[in-house]
Amino acid sequence: MVKELGNSVGILMADPGQGKRQRNLKDGIVPLYHPKYRLKEQGIEIRKPLFETGLPSKIKDKVLRVFGKPPLNVSEKAKKEAFAPFYKAKATLWVGLSLNDSMLELALFCQESQTPFLLGLAGDVDLDFLSNSEGRDAFGASREKKKKTMSLAAAVVVQNRVQEKTMRQYFPSIPAYYLPNPIDLSASPPHGQKRSGAVWIGKMDSNKNPLALLRLAQKIPQLKITMVSNPADTGLGQEVLKSLPSNVKWIQSLSHSETLALMASAEVHFSTSLQEGFPNTFLEAAAVKTPTVSLHVDPDNLMQQGLFGFCAGGNENLFIERVLQAMDRNAEVMQMLETTWSYVQENHAYERVKERWGGIVQSVMQT
Fold first, then answer.
1. Spatial separation of the C-alpha atoms in residues 127 and 147, rounded to whole Å
2. Each residue of 8-25: pLDDT tens digit?
3. Global pTM exceeds 0.70
4. What is residue 75's DSSP assignment?
5. Who has the most CB within 10 Å: 45, 153, 231, 350?
6. pLDDT tens string 27-81
7. How far apart are CA 207 and CA 204, in angstroms?
8. What is the DSSP letter of 136?
9. Which of 265, 263, 259, 214 shows the shortest CA–CA distance to 236?
10. Is residue 53 a contact partner of residue 76, using CB atoms and an 8 Å limit?
């Protein structure tokens, strides 16, 4: 979107190594790579934690002190190595999505270079440090570092009204902008074709809660379920594979157009996530008038207001009842789908969100 609005844009990514780096991305976006973060088959490998040094470097410093020589100041060296790719990018604005340990590195760079840092919240878990400031969150991020990162943000973009309210309550001095997740309605496949089965789409991690999907599938063996999930957590993926019911088909990856087509052909869309911000899959389902049944998540309580589908509030038996209700597609359900489609068009359409996003970017760059 920022590129379409006439700006030069780059994306800083983990380094896949020589011969695998791309020279250009879609629409002229510039690919940038950080050698500290290595892209491996099993995920991203971080060579060194935040400005921390390994045991060999610490031993060297200790030996140097014994002989009366100055230490290497390896933490300062580590910081320079970590900051070098940021300086090389010469960006006038940095945008970071979600709170994690690595994001603090970017926030500290922006503080040193006096470059605006715009933080985008992903899920509600990003703000869990407000209720528990110690330890690590469900994804392994240090809550202490999340709090520090938040304090360095020039502004914060939130995905839902609950996040917006929380920001204004706890961080009144940090500008908070509500930006609905966008969906390109023109790219959605036509709805109205013959539908069958259910679809579940999400990363293979504990928050997406795929094991709950397997339990639910066993309660409705007559329903064919397609599970689209990239095996991010290989251990969890192996556990799912061993327990896969006969009515669940697991596909590891699909193109975006294939995913939308699958969503359009389903009778119902399942969500078993424990926490979210505003799930894109809810929007993709709504765009093709497929009802969503959610086990836990009801973004901004919109399902309570008769939009998107039904939330079971964590009750798996109620979830099954709501699935059957959604699949019945009676007049009430059909009206809900029509109202939801209008809501999505009004609030989440790509061009509308792009205009709002452009205003946010300009506002932050001018502060």
1. 9
2. 999 999 999 888 999 888
3. yes
4. H
5. 153
6. 889 999 999 999 887 678 887 766 665 566 667 666 766 767 665 555 778 888 8
7. 9
8. B
9. 214
10. no
